UniProtKB/TrEMBL annotation:
GO terms for molecular function: heme binding; iron ion binding; monooxygenase activity; oxidoreductase activity, acting on paired donors, with incorporation or reduction of molecular oxygen. This is Cytochrome P450 superfamily protein, putative isoform 2. PANTHER family: CYTOCHROME P450, CYTOCHROME P450 93A3-LIKE. Keywords: Heme, Iron, Membrane, Metal-binding, Monooxygenase, Oxidoreductase. One of its GO terms (cellular component) is membrane. It comes from the Eukaryota. Belongs to the cytochrome P450 family.
Length: 294
């Protein structure tokens, strides 16, 4: 894999500003190639019309301010459930695995936001996502020494295929249920979830004025879902875990943060999302956590 080290502001400007389009493409990564069926998602596809269109879809139907606001009731319901679980466990004097609880809450929120439903307990979804995140970021000798790729010395190729098959089988089942009209629509009264927006584009041209340019197939939709699910699950959980860890390591900071919460919110109600802009010290804590653990 050819590598160039950019070590000066002038060189960085040439690469990232003057010739940005030329260097906008992503390198080919063996594990991602299998997980997204040939980099047909967003994060690892090459820059061009396809990338721009998928990016627009993701922002419009999942990441825009209006969509985030639509999901507020989902986040609130799950946070209330988490607080009650912590309160009950503390009252009983039992030990609580907070990382596990936070991960479960993030998983449920992600599932309801993206798929409009919670994943069935009998589906091994979380382990597959965790393996996907690991494989996408792990060092793979085959990416740097291509002639060794056929030997699969680290068994990354085998693991990537197995994980990909598991995830795509789940998504195929969800798409089949959607096409048969058997998906529960109870949670989609006030909004349309990302999955159903994507499936509605199945077998349609990306550019309506040029129907021969690119037709969205199942592999494209599943690759996009893999990336969106993996990104939303891993980054959120990791950020929360590191922030809580740093607060436990620095009791003074935790005390100051608790004081701000008591001043702004009080003790008689839960923190609402509308309170967050007023919590200046909380913003500083989160930003410092991001700085320490990028």
């Amino acid at each position: 894999m050819p590598t160039i080290v950019v070590s000066s502001p002038e060189a960085a400007e040439l690469f990232l500003k003057v010739h940005d389009v030329i260097f906008a493409g992503m390198p080919k990564v063996q594990s991602v190639d299998y997980l997204t069926r040939g980099a047909k998602g967003l994060a690892f596809t090459q820059y061009g019309f396809y990338w721009r269109t998928v990016r627009k879809w993701c922002i419009l139907h999942l990441l825009s301010a209006s969509k985030v606001e639509c999901f507020a009731h989902v986040r609130k319901a799950e946070m209330v459930s988490l607080v009650e679980s912590v309160r009950k466990t503390a009252a009983e004097g039992k030990t609580l695995n907070l990382s596990q609880q936070v991960g479960k809450v993030v998983e449920v929120i992600m599932s309801r936001v993206i798929f409009g439903r919670c994943m069935d307990d009998n589906i091994e979804f979380k382990p597959l996502i965790e393996e996907t995140v690991h494989l996408a970021g792990v060092f793979n000798l085959s990416d740097y020494v291509p002639f060794l790729a056929p030997f699969d010395l680290q068994e990354i190729k085998r693991r990537s295929k197995r994980t990909s098959n598991g995830l795509h089988a789940i998504f195929d089942k969800l798409i089949d249920e959607h096409e048969q009209g058997s998906t529960n629509t109870e949670e989609r009264n006030s909004y349309t979830d990302f999955f159903h927006v994507m499936v509605s584009l199945l077998n349609k041209p990306m550019n309506p004025t040029d129907k021969e340019q690119y037709i969205i197939g199942r592999e494209n939709i599943k690759a996009i879902l893999v990336e969106m699910v993996a990104a939303s699950f891993d980054t959120t959980t990791t950020a929360i875990e590191w922030t809580l860890s740093e607060l436990l390591r620095h009791p003074r900071v935790m005390a100051d943060l608790q004081q701000e919460l008591e001043t702004v919110v009080g003790r008689n109600r839960m923190v609402e999302e509308s309170d967050i802009p007023k919590l200046t010290y909380l913003h500083m804590v989160v930003k410092e956590s991001f700085r320490l653990h990028p």
